[in-house]
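User: Here's a protein and a ligand (flavin-adenine dinucleotide). What would the complex look like?
Assistant: Let me lay out the input and then the predicted complex.
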Amino acid sequence: MLDGTTRSGQSGSDGTGPITIFGPDFPFAFDDWLEHPSGLGSVPPESLGQEVAVVGAGISGLVAAYELMKLGLRPVLYEASQLGGRLRSQEFEGAAGIVAELGGMRFPVSSTSFYHYVDLLGLRTEPFPNPLTPASGSTVIDIEGTTHYAEQLSDLPALFREVAAAWAHALDDRASFTRIQDAIRSRDVATLKALWNELVPLWDDRTFYDFVATSEAFSSLSFHHREVFGQVGFGTGGWDSDFPNSMLEILRVVMTECDENQRLVVGGVEQVPRGLWHHAPERIVHWPQGTSLASLHSGAPRAGVARLSREPDGTIAVTDTWGDVRRYPAVLTTCQSWLLTTQIECDESLFSQKLWMALDRTRYMQSSKTFVMVDRPFWKDKDPATGRDVMSMTLTDRLTRGTYLFDNGDDKPGVICLTYSWMSDAMKMLPESVDRRVRLSLDSLRKIYPDVDIAGHIIGDPITVSWEADRYFLGAFKGALPGHYRYNQRMYAHFCQDEMPVEHRGIFLAGDDVSWTPAWVEGAVQTSLNAVWGVLHHFGGTTFPENPGPGDVFSAIGPIELAD
Ligand SMILES: Cc1cc2nc3c(=O)[nH]c(=O)nc-3n(C[C@H](O)[C@H](O)[C@H](O)COP(=O)(O)OP(=O)(O)OC[C@H]3O[C@@H](n4cnc5c(N)ncnc54)[C@H](O)[C@@H]3O)c2cc1C
């Protein structure tokens, strides 16, 4: 079906299927495309073995390279930093398998294309210890000096339930929330497009804070309700950092349940990109059985890219940091788009000026995390006076904002993410050393847990990250501002190149900041699959009629364009 209205497997049209990251901007069933027995498509015999440069070996670069290899092309990966990119699991020194998840760490089950690869690699997942979930056991919410202990929402004072109810009310009242979720469940493309396309011009210009503050549901409550909402958020906590973002971005997150039912990858999510690097697919065209990305690259990706330029014969020259120049009929860039102006010297003529505007106006959010390893999951010890856990997953308005507890088993070291913060809170940590970040975090937590000696449990060296301080990222992930819809649309739609002037074709974009759901890995994977279709098409290949790809249905169900 070319209109993308049916899908196999998970749901029927009765609205009882699961919520998945299906649209809302581009409701194409990426999961079905991936799972279809026919495969993604085929390239003409003369293109088999042809090289495609892939800039960046994060998840989007690796997914694209893996799928292009299966189609019989020869992906050539370039990586300036570490394989895996922002799916980075750093092992604590001397503690095999005990990791700090520095980038992505909690993966909503609605990320069905991402889980396609998790399952392919046979990786084990577990519920993520989010606030107020059984996986965390207990949660402490500390706001304006008052501390609440809870195992579920109903344990908290009525004010918290009023906040949750106001949020649900505001979403239905102003954003057709339930109707859109019903359309996602039944994969009813026509209804989903009709409802979502109405919201795009209404909310592109307005912030998340505006949505909350001017809603009927919240305006009848106190200012403090808004503060609590910003603190506790909807599921994962700390959402006041997103208050300046475009409301459309927040709507996508909640409608597709990015903020719910999240799991972690046991042993670290970096196993996904690394697994794809080593995996020899069962079905592969042109290459001998047993071929993997690692074997095609003699073990390691090429170095970082320093220059991208158009050659007189139309190919694109890729120059690496050592000056090696190779020419390719197609190039896919997956690094953050700002790096196309800071890291990589790009011929300006590779993209239109409208696209450059979009690439450069993209806005990144800052984020910092600091982890320590502890001798055991001591937080489960009971306070003899109260019978409660001595320490809990903690949300606070203090410096640490979110503290997460990772239980690796009673006989193994535990891991505490002392602080996970964004934007202003991350900037407060930016100039500090890892030791000082730990001290500042412990000082904060001591005010909440005066009787718990966290420092006495720390073993090994702490680990920290500030993504904005890393020249290969310049920020954690995109956070679109009001008025950014047009920029997102230009970047997202760029993989369909038939209408473009010839001089702009052959270079493709994918990754977190091209996606509609930045900060969620599923968006990086879906844009990567768009790019696979774009490259396939560029080489004269086609999809199979029974399994159309994203570019085949894009003109019918792609994201709407707003006038410039
Ligand atoms: C702090 C944080 C928390 C997150 N939390 C979650 C979460 O809980 N759940 C979730 O689903 N997602 C989460 N995400 C988002 C998820 O991690 C990203 O969407 C995904 O990892 C992005 O993958 P990518 O391939 O698009 O980009 P990247 O991983 O950035 O890959 C791009 C690669 O390009 C490389 N590169 C840069 N410059 C060059 C150059 N000149 N030449 C060659 N290579 C270059 C980089 O080193 C990098 O490896 C989080 C991200 C961060 C940072």
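Summary: Residues 89-135+367-469 form a domain with the Polyamine Oxidase; Chain A, domain 2 fold (CATH 3.90.660.10).
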